[in-house]
Amino acid sequence: MAQKRVILELGTGNDLHGGDYTKAALRAVQDALHHSSLTMIRTLKVDPRTGMFVDVTIGVQQPDKVDLEKVRASLPYGIVTVKAVKGGLDVPDPEGNDIAVIASAAVAVRLELP
């Protein structure tokens, strides 16, 4: 059977102080997850631990500063892959010598379907 994408959810997250790209990424993933209810998983009798494939793409200005393993571990089910790419937004605060990090997340779920 071929894997077919059945859902794509988007989310945003931020770290307003501290410039923590992983924290912003985790918040973006949680935002995307809270927009979804995958009732079809039960309806189709798919085991979410072994039959659901989750692809996460995180967009931030400094992708190499995202702890991909922490992001992967934050998803409750599925065979998860995570990648970070250039995107998102950094908003500097020159007076406070600080940066606000805004991350975007795309969470795609694939199932093996005929």
Automatic annotation (TrEMBL):
Keywords, sorted A to Z: GTP-binding, Nucleotide-binding
Q: Which InterPro entries match?
A: CHP02058 (IPR011719), Tubulin/FtsZ-like_C (IPR037103)
| A Pfam family | Lin0512_fam
The record's GO molecular-function terms, alphabetically, read:
GTP binding
What PANTHER family does the entry give?
A: 50S RIBOSOMAL PROTEIN L34
Protein name listed in UniProt: Uncharacterized protein
Species name for this entry?
Enhydrobacter aerosaccus
